[in-house]
Specification:
Length: about 300
């Protein structure tokens, strides 16, 4: 009888031990998951902070603003600065949203942020920036959250990035791009050279005094720029005309595969020649400068070797 009792208590002890192990494992899993969420949240927050710092560095540097404005084709440095600051604001909102999701920000604190987010995105400027500049920089989850919780119209939240461009005179070119082509602007055609220590004549002339260029080098650089500019303007007009012709054919539904192939080959030829004109100018400009002047130019432009 006593042996039976001992056996029963042994079984009970085994069951209790088993339950204890299971409970321990459950708590361990919860703790690991919590730590994983914390690591994930901290990693995301650090990434957002790095992006915010990077945008602030651009927004507070006139040279960096000018360079990025040229590469990104914005309306001007001031417009780009505003956009960077607005995107930074939304990045902070997004960071706070995910911090709240992972339990790092309390409900009351988040509700204050949420009311600011919704109030801002419902304004005319807020909605315009959201549609044109901000939404593409955010995660799908946060974008969907704002759309559903702040009453952003579905057509704004999910519309095509081409929306509004159907009114362009030439669908494939914005008004800014047309103006840039007509003015012989760089449009990023020579970015490859610029970022590989091959300065272009336009920007070299702008900092000629800082580079301590001699009169002959200044004269040659100016002649080089004038030659590049006149060729770029002529080719820009050709590219506009070719794109306009292709647009007209599609608009009239009067194009087939053969005509499309022919038109694209011509557009490609003009675009390649235009890029060559800009890159060649950088090649020729590099030969006019010493290694020390190129290094100084890169420093002025904010490029780090």
């Amino acid at each position: 009888m006593n042996n039976d009792k001992v056996k029963n208590w042994a079984h009970v002890a085994e069951i209790v031990s088993g339950v204890a192990v299971v409970v321990t494992l459950v708590f361990l899993v919860i703790e690991v998951r919590g730590n994983s969420d914390l690591i994930r949240a901290n990693t995301f927050n650090r990434s957002i902070e790095s992006l915010v710092d990077y945008r602030m560095q651009i927004a507070t540097s006139e040279d960096a603003l000018q360079t990025m404005n040229e590469h990104w084709g914005r309306e001007g440095p001031d417009s780009l600065r505003r956009q960077l600051l607005v995107v930074n604001l939304w990045s902070i909102y997004e960071k706070t949203y995910f911090s709240q999701q992972y339990g790092l920000v309390g409900t009351a604190e988040w509700q204050r942020f949420e009311s600011r987010i919704c109030s801002y995105v419902r304004t005319a400027d807020g909605l315009r920036y959201w549609t044109e500049s901000v939404a593409g920089f955010l995660t799908d989850e946060f974008r969907d959250y704002v759309a559903s919780n702040c009453g952003v119209p579905d057509q704004v939240a999910k519309e095509s990035p081409y929306a509004g461009q159907e009114h362009r005179a030439i669908k494939s070119l914005s008004e800014k791009e047309v103006n840039a082509l007509r003015n012989g602007a760089g449009m990023g055609f020579a970015k490859l050279a610029e970022l590989n220590h091959f300065p272009g004549p336009k920007h070299v002339l702008a900092v000629a005094d800082q580079l301590e260029l001699g009169e002959s080098v200044v004269a040659e650089s100016r002649s080089l720029y004038d030659d590049m500019h006149s060729r770029a303007v002529a080719l820009g007009e050709q590219l506009i005309a070719a794109e306009e012709d292709l647009d007209r054919r599609f608009s009239a539904a009067s194009i087939d595969e053969f005509a499309l192939d022919e038109a694209l080959r011509e557009i490609g030829r003009i675009r390649a020649e235009l890029r060559y004109v800009h890159l060649e100018a950088h090649l020729r400009q590099r030969r006019l400068l010493s290694d020390e002047q190129v290094a100084k130019y890169d420093e002025i432009r904010g490029y780090h070797r």
